[in-house]
Design brief:
Length: 449
């Protein structure tokens, strides 16, 4: 790759003038779906305008034509200038395939910058740990992705960072736990797996009140895990979140082949996140970045449209089924927070986008929901063609799991009841199969419970 300014300094030779493929109107005026397919590969920064598909770069270290260039690379690392016109030194610091993916992720989440990580958890730990210090308090919603919960309760206390949990659906509850030590308010919306929503604008309002009079480096930041909704359905930064984290392993990657994570937000967090990533070392491999850049992100919009169509059909089928006690899907008119869903879960073209995940509870003929849930999922695991018993979500294949005994098994029994996580509860992540077939497989499983 020839970077536009790569020979600018050091030998004084200007690069040959080259006509780049410039779109007839600025990239920013094209719709998101289009931008995620075409990215910014054919710009002076990347100069991949002869590639229809951007190349997968694989180089642990980079040739430096002079000591001066090496020095400029180190000094410029993590700065905005270094981001605009990078001097590559070593993969763990910065690397072009990842850089292209990061530009597109920032576009997707309507952020100024994105920094990728090796997994969603690496991104979540970086977002939180690059902000807190000894004595800080994190306030988190009471239901969280299991490993995030473990990060906050097992690891951070060892470094003097405590977490208090609250029901962030009620703004008054947040207010009660915030203290002078609060630095991060952390949550997912929709919440995994119960699909309840947290009002981003309401949290912003409360946090703004607490931030009054605080220094910039002492402000409380709102960090939102957007993995369930994906930037197709919801862009938390637009509602006032400071940082968004996404597991790229899920719907953004989409095909279930690679792990990855990203933190997206405003430019002022870039340097800190890059430094954190350099020193803690959880970089996304360029190989994974390439798959997500070339297959995952460009197909996100079109996959989500189809996932959602299936999710709504399945939710409507489940709602009418006599063996189902409850269906939680933000797209249903009966969803308890339907108004909030319509306000918050909106695609960038303005269409309501309730997502690809749903949660439902089954009851069996013997009135024992725990046994019925397990029988239901086991029948699917053994006999269904279109539905697979597996954790993860957002893939082209429909996935099912039983959160009570699987992903959320570690949550104490009493807590499970309070948060509405019951033994017969089932999480379904819709894929791209024909929804008639998915419903037929579900119907067969209902007959078996
Ligand atoms: C999977 C997931 C994560 C963690 O992502 P990994 O890529 O598995 O590390 C975090 N949050 C949510 C909501 C998830 O579903």
């Amino acid at each position: 790759m020839r970077k536009k300014n790569s020979t600018k300094k050091g030998n004084g030779v200007a690069p040959p003038a080259k006509k780049l493929h410039e779109p007839r109107k600025p990239r920013e005026t094209y719709r998101l779906r289009t931008r995620l397919i075409h990215g910014s590969f054919a710009t002076g920064k990347w100069d991949y305008d002869h590639h229809v598909v951007p190349p997968e770069t694989r180089s642990a270290t980079y040739r430096l034509e002079s000591v001066l260039r090496g020095s400029e690379g180190f000094v410029g690392f993590g700065t905005q200038a270094g981001q605009r016109d990078p001097i590559y030194i070593y993969d763990r610091l910065d690397e072009p395939t990842r850089g292209m993916l990061e530009e597109n992720l920032a576009v997707a989440e309507h952020g100024e910058m994105a920094v990728t990580f090796s997994t969603g958890m690496a991104a979540i730990s970086a977002a939180i740990c690059s902000v807190v210090k000894k004595g800080s308090q994190v306030v988190a919603h009471r239901v969280l992705y299991g490993c995030t919960h473990s990060l906050l309760t097992n690891w951070l206390p060892r470094y003097g960072v405590r977490t208090d949990f609250a029901d962030l659906r009620c703004p008054g509850c947040l207010e009660k736990v915030l203290t002078k030590d609060s630095r991060v308010v952390y949550f997912e919306t929709p919440v995994n797996p119960t699909m309840e929503l947290i009002d981003l604008a309401a949290v912003r309002k409360t946090v703004d009140r607490f931030n009054k009079g605080r220094r910039d480096d002492d402000r409380i930041l709102i960090v939102v895990d957007n993995t369930f909704a994906t930037p197709y359905c919801q862009r938390p930064l637009e509602f006032g979140a400071d940082l968004v984290v996404d597991s790229l392993t899920k719907a953004i990657g989409g095909f279930g082949t690679d792990m990855g994570g990203a933190v997206v937000g405003s430019q002022k967090y870039y340097a800190n996140l890059m430094l954190y990533r350099k020193d803690f070392g959880g970089v996304l491999s360029p190989r994974n970045a390439w798959s997500i850049l070339v297959y995952g992100l460009p197909t996100l919009a079109t996959r989500m449209v189809n996932y959602q169509k299936a999710a709504l059909k399945v939710a409507e089928f489940l709602e009418k089924h006599p063996k189902v006690t409850r269906v939680c899907y933000p797209g249903l008119a009966t969803f308890p927070q339907a108004d909030l869903a319509r306000r918050q879960m909106v695609a960038s073209d303005g269409k309501f986008a309730p997502g690809s995940l749903l949660y439902f509870e089954v009851k069996g003929s013997d009135k024992n929901p725990a046994a019925a849930g397990e029988r239901f999922v086991n029948f699917i695991a053994e006999r269904a063609y279109t539905i697979t018993l597996a954790v993860s979500l957002g893939q082209i294949k429909t996935l099912i799991e039983n959160p009570y005994s699987m992903t959320h098994a570690v949550v104490p029994e009493k807590e499970k009841r309070t948060i509405g996580l019951l033994p017969g509860g089932i999480r379904l992540s819709l894929g791209l199969e024909d929804w008639h077939d998915i419903i037929a497989d579900l119907e067969a499983a209902f007959e078996a419970v």
